[in-house]
Amino acid sequence: MSAADGDRGRGTDPLLVACALRIEQVALRSAGRGHGPGRGSAGGHVLLRTGMGPRAAERALGRALERPGMDRAAVLATGFCAGLVPGMHPGDLVVAEETRDPQGIVTCTGSALLAEALARAAPGRTVHRGALTGSDHVVRGQERAQLRATGAIAVDMESAATLWTATRGGGRPVAAVRVIVDAPEHELVRIGTVRGGISAFRVLRAVLPAFHEWHRSLLLPRR
Question: Which long-range contacts link 33-38 to residues 24+ away (Cβ below 8 Å)?
Answer without folding.
Answer: 38/1
